[in-house]
Write the structure tokens for this entry.
Amino acid sequence: MANKIKTLFRPWRAIVLLLMAPGVLASDLSVTLEGIRADEGGVIKVFLYDSGKAWLKEPEALASREFTPDEPTKSFTFDSLDQDATYAIQLLHDADGDGKLKYRMFPPKILEGFGFSNNYVPTTKPRFSKARFRLADVSAGMTIRLVYPD
């Protein structure tokens, strides 16, 4: 009889442990893009990454957004993100719509509009460590300004 009682109470132990464990708080991230050159056409692509390993690998992005640039600013939200996690955002204005970022090798220069979280402007290959942020630290949202070649 004692063994039957133990067996009946085992599931309750798991439930109690789950209730005592610290929960993951989900938050939304509001993002505003500024400086969009709507007259250049194409599409704006935004990628949200949650690790340096996935950084700049578009298929490995945690989330993404794509829209037609029709105004100089655009606001949107990434929903249900872990409040304590670290993220980084990459965006590009694919003006010719070919799905590729245009750049010149020498001297190195990006030839289409781009941007990163923290308004980080790289001088070499973009680094996750420079663009990363903790969601809890940007609870009011984030504004990213697009940079275009002159």
